[in-house]
Amino acid sequence: MELLKKNIHTERIKSKALLQIPLEADINVSDAKPDVAKVIYDRGTIKVDEIKTGMNKIWVKGKLCYQLLYQTEGIPAVDNNLSADNTLSVDKGGKTLAGMDGDIPFMEEIYLDKLEGTDRVVCKTNLDDMRVHIINSRKLSIQSVISLEPRVEESISEELCVELDNTGEADQKLEYRKKSLDFLETIVKKRDLLRIHEETRLPAGMPEIGAALWKNAVISSINFRPMDEKLGITGELTVFIVYREDTSNRINWHETVIPFNGSVECQNSREGMIADVMYEIGHEEITIREDSDGEFRVIGVETTVELEIKLYEKESTSIVADVYGVSCEVQAGIDSKQFCDLCMELNIEEKLTRSIRLEDADPKILQVCHSDARARLAEMTWKDGQLKMSGEIELQVLYASNESGAVLCPVRSTVPFEIVRDIPDVSEAQLEQCSLSIWIPQQTVGIKDSAQLEWRGSINAKLLVYNTKSEDILTELKIEPINADVLEKLPGFAIYYVKPGDSLWQIGKKYYVSVGRIKEMNNLTEDEIKAGDKILIVK
Question: Which listed CATH number (3.40.50.720, 3.90.1310.10, 3.10.350.10, 3.40.640.10) goes with 484-539?
Answer without folding.
Answer: 3.10.350.10
